[in-house]
Amino acid sequence: FEAAATRTCNYLIGIAGNKPLGDYTRADALKFREWLIDRGLTGSSVTRNFSYLKAVFNFAVSEYALDIKNPFLGVYHDRQAGVIKRQPIPIDDIKLVQAMCRQVDDDMRWLVALISDTGMRLAEGAGLLKSDIHLDADLPFVRIQKHPWRNLKTASSERLIPLCGQALWAAERIVASDQTSKFAFPRYNRHSTTKANSASAALNKWLKQYVPIGCTMHSFRHSMRDRLRSVQCPSDIADQIGGWTSEGVGQGYGSGYPLSVLQEWVEKAIYQNGPQSLKK
Questions:
Q1: With contact defined as beta carbons under 8 Å apart, do 176 and 132 qualify?
Q2: Contacting residues for 211 by C-beta, under 8 A, at least 6 apart
Q3: CA atoms within 13 A on the CB side of 237
Q4: What is the crossing angle of helices 219-230 and 259-271, to 10°?
Q5: Which helix or strand (DSSP H or E) is residue 259 part of?
Q6: Residue 39: exposed, middle, or buried by beta-carbon count in 10 A (0-12, 13-18, 19+)?
Q7: What does each C-alpha distance from 254 to 235, 249, 257 come to in angstroms?
Q8: What residues are paired with 228 via a beta bridge?
Q9: Nearest to residue 221, comparing CAs of 251, 200, 195, 252?
């Protein structure tokens, strides 16, 4: 958040100048909106930039008890402009991609396979340590947790995910590989931060030859949600598997479902369709 907020504030300073908060006007806010749109940003990106500005402005107003209005509130723009709805990957295409991953059998394909049957975010997978993968447990699992080189999107993103199907195969290949590195994917962790964008560009380029137009690596996440729905997995269990934020006060109580329950539903979602030859 800090990096993104700083970047957005620098955008505003470049457009309207660096001045006391009380001197920013609605005209500045509208000028900022038009600048973002002219740069070709989607509606969701415009919204995100305004959310950073509003948060910084509101914090300063509250912290210093300033008697000024926030000119960046309620600025209209088309939130759907340029937004492409991500599509899930059909199950037959998932099976094809997984078969190709086993055929190519390299670290990039291990990352694809790992994500395909866990629904984890690409950055979550790319930033894993080998020690995050627990194959010797009674129920194999991967621990998604914060690391200095890769943060997590939300608090609920910290979780355990059962390793089943092709994700288990990929995890076994990862742990057995390159014993000189602690990282599951050294090629994306050669600097201080995980290069998730590099992973996304490379993997999407390879993936597009096997999936429908508009599908990306992130589409596996949408597919996992649909696969869990198709076996009537309760929404709170699905939320815990995917690290989605659950609604309701009650979701904040207790420590969540045990791994055995999560594995039961992940296995149902994975093995309901497709050739069973890929199960092992």
A1: no
A2: 89, 93, 97, 219
A3: 20
A4: 100
A5: helix 259-271
A6: exposed
A7: 17, 11, 9
A8: none
A9: 200
Q: Report the chain's terminal Cα–Cα distance, integer Å.
A: 41
Do residues 241 and 267 make contact, with C-beta atoms less than 8 angstroms apart?
A: no
pLDDT bucket at 179, cuts 50 / 70 / 90: confident
Helix, strand, or coil (residue 175):
helix
Q: What pLDDT score was predicted for residue 270?
A: 95
93: number of Cβ within 10 Å: 17
pLDDT tens digits for 80-126? Answer: 775 566 789 999 999 999 999 999 999 999 999 999 999 999 999 99
The pTM for the full model equals: 0.77
5-57 confidence digits (pLDDT tens): 999 999 999 999 999 999 999 999 999 999 999 998 888 899 999 999 999 99
Strands 159-162 vs 133-134: parallel, antiparallel or unpaired: unpaired
| Mean model confidence pLDDT for the chain | 91
Decide if 262 contacts 164 (C-beta within 8 A): no
